[in-house]
Design brief:
metal ion binding, rSAM, iron-sulfur, two-stranded antiparallel sheet, six-stranded mixed β-sheet, alpha/beta, 28% helix, rSAM_sf, iron
């Protein structure tokens, strides 16, 4: 084990060992052991990792893949996720600032995405790595019924499925009564997509909850296997 001060002050020296620890953990789940950086790879710009993915292989998230020279995977129409309803008030981390937490009689539509752009060694929801439940945007839209007060996209992390969550947000905001739309994320998504998320959250009186692991990039890489620059 390394203390925070050692990681910050001696990062270059310790990085090979940190990298090996993450690789060993990820290998158990058949995920790419490091952030792909193949010279001939196709760049995925969805998140901070900016994976250069070799033909036929997956990005760091294990969700998006280079197939025929194109980065493919979940899109606006489908994603890997599990969903359920929670009666309000629920255990939302923003309940102390959100008026929706007092919407008694309504419920939260919780959308748990089965994928992530980080590799947190302390992840409490690590079990998502063993699941791949394909779900359409239309199914989620139908789940946002007349007594749904809010929807929260979390996981895992919504980043590998950013377009899918946007499509669901779009359908809900256009065709349903006022439902608060929220994201809970590690903040690794591209700034362009984050701005789109923020627009839906603000318009619906929802919010975006950023899960800061640490403010230090060195510590973030040590704990999560990835940079926190976008966060």
């Amino acid at each position: 084990p390394f203390c925070p001060t050692c990681i910050r002050d001696k990062f270059d020296k310790l990085y090979p060992q940190i990298k090996e620890i993450h690789a060993r953990v990820r290998k158990k789940f058949k995920l790419p052991e490091t952030i792909p950086n193949h010279n001939s790879g196709k760049i995925c710009r969805l998140c901070v990792n900016k994976c250069r993915i070799k033909e036929g292989l997956f990005g760091y998230c294990g969700i998006r893949k280079n197939a025929g020279g194109k980065v493919v995977g979940p899109d606006r129409n489908w994603a890997y996720l599990d969903w359920y309803h929670d009666p309000l008030p629920t255990n939302c981390v923003a309940d102390w600032v959100c008026k929706g937490s007092k919407d008694y009689g309504f419920k939260n539509l919780a959308v748990f995405y089965e994928g992530c752009t980080f590799n947190c060694l302390f992840c409490q929801n690590w079990h998502y790595r063993d699941k791949k439940t394909k779900t359409t945007a239309q199914e989620l839209f139908r789940a946002a019924d007349s007594v749904t007060g809010c929807v929260c996209f979390f996981g895992g992390d919504p980043t590998p499925f950013a377009l899918h969550s946007l499509e669901v947000a779009k359908q809900i905001s256009e065709k349903r009564r006022k439902i608060r739309i929220c994201w809970e994320t590690n903040g690794s998504v591209s700034p362009k997509l984050m701005r789109l998320w923020a627009e839906y959250a603000l318009r619906s009186n929802g919010c975006i909850k950023i899960d800061f692991k640490t403010f230090s990039e060195e510590l973030n890489i040590a704990l999560c296997g990835s940079s926190n620059n976008n966060t």
